[in-house]
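Q: Sequence in, structure out?
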Amino acid sequence: MNGKVYELGLKAVALLKEKDMTVATAESCTGGLVSSYITAVPGTSSVFELGITSYSCRIKNKILGVDENTLEVLGAVSPETAEQMAKNVRILADSSIGVSVTGVAGPDGSEGHAPGLVYIAAAYDGGVQVEKLNIEPLSRDYVRETAVYEIFKLIIKIIGESKK
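A: Exactly. Output:
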């Protein structure tokens, strides 16, 4: 486990607890790594609602409710898919924040996208924020760990903007 990522995860979980908020995750290219980092923090059960790893478009559609047309036309690696994943996991879990990640971890490309292209999103009472990341594809693990780090930064930012 990457210490830098874990430390930021600790901070995100502490802020969620402080604000009495919850989080749910919808992951693709990170393969459950966001959930893993969150649940590595002791006492996380009070803030972590649900984690779904949806590698296939079929599961993104069937379980996470990502529109079939979005997946067919724009692809699994798109800001629209990330947005729908975040919104829908939040609804499924009835949580304060829903976060998502979809992209290409590598080493090969996918859907015509190069390794390192990742979209993260967070849905919350104030709306949805989607970010495009172009991560240097030094390795598959590096792309995944960096995406998790950026999700924790996004969670912290949203909590700071929260009215709670």
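The CA atoms of residues 15 and 69 lie 37 Å apart.
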